[in-house]
Amino acid sequence: MSAPLAPSAPNAPLSPPRAPARAGTVTAAELLDFALRTAADPAVIDSLPLDPEGRTWIRLDGPGGSEAWVIGWPPGTGTGWHDHAESRGAFATARGRLREHSLAVRLPSEGWRSLELAADLDRSRSLGAGTGRAFGEHHVHEVLNESQTEHAVSVHVYYPPLPLIRRYSRTGQVLTLEQVERPADWQ
Question: Which pTM value belongs to this model?
Answer without folding.
Answer: 0.84
